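Help wanted!
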Amino acid sequence: MTRDTQWPRWEVFKQDRPDRPHEAVGTVHAPDADVALLNARDVYVRRPSCYSLWVAPESAVFKMTAYELETTPNWWKEDLPEEAPEETYHIFNKQTQRRSMVAVTHVGNIQARSSREALRKAIDSGQFVEKIAYMWWVVPESAITRSNEEDVPSMFEPAEDKTYRDQSYYTGSVFARRSQRRPEDIRLS
Amino acid sequence: MNEQLQQALMDRLVAMADDEVILGHRDSEWTGHAPILEEDIAIANIAQDELGHALIWYELAEPYTGNDADSMAFFRDARQFRNVQMVELPNGDWAFTMLRQYLFDAYEMALLTRLMTSQYAPLAEAAEKIRREEIYHFRHSSIWVERLGLGTEESHARMQRALDHLWPYALQLFRPMPLDAHLVEAGFFPDPDQLQTAWQDVVLPHLKNADLTPPDAEPIYAHRHHHTEHLVDLLADMQLVARSIPKAVW
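Answered by r_m:
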């Protein structure tokens, strides 16, 4: 049997601006939360705008599609001890098929005793979806590791000054600007 | 600015640029080969940042060298480079690469923090800009020193071996250049001795926390115009395309 040498997967949530919600943009492998945050920065924020990053172990994210909700009878049923403590759960869903790079978007949070209970409460409340949700994710607050506001200048802001932020910058003109010199032109003291 | 101060400034700017361009090239050699995809992306990112910093230093030096950044990087020979030997050493394993990056990042953090108050305004401005990215580099390499130092028996052994090899080379970063006294006097550049103290105050406790011990070895205190044989091979690779088609427009 081959040993699995992959590091665990982490879901990455990126917030473009302070007034925008966090969006699930993909996963990274990492041995722990701190490395996951750095890897998330390198993989997903090398050029795009970013104000804040969250990472959560993929194993801590509870995911249900609309199809699964419809076809799994009593999906909310679970053995939950009566005295299980309440915690904050973050609710994400996908309400449009337009943005293919984003899996789900943060729509709010709810107090519950489990991810399943949080999702049931979120759906029952009717306040987290306008027309249709194709997919739901629930993430307990305790599973999330966040970048700090102090990280913004070193982790995210330098991207704004880069010349080659996306494909449209590769027009050729930027390269052509630099004149080329022959070796014999070079003076050195 | 008198002539000696100008010469001293040019020497330092070129030395800083050469350190960055050579380290950036070494980092870029990992592209496609790093131990895990995420780190492959991270090291390519760091390589590009270091090349970007080299560009800034070369451009600041341009009024004095009379050469643009491309000429400096691609059309000088090994004996004309002023980088420290540490950055030209072959990459070795991931432990060696991360430890070298860490020792260099810590030096750059100490240096840039002080350059931000340099009496030479262009240097102070550039330092402030570059330092933002360096904070991130330093965080990345610090994390790896810790993870590998305290990881498995093998990762610890590889890190300690890298430290035994690199430590004497790292101390070359603090050898004053011949005209440095003029820069220090003018408040352009920090005193290399103070820089070394500041660096050690950060590096020694971190290494200790990672269960790594610097060797009791003589520093490699070469002048910056002395190089190992590795620089010639590195430049042959780095300069090949630019020298093959000197007038190419990209």
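OP: Thanks! One thing I noticed: Chain B has one domain: 3-244.
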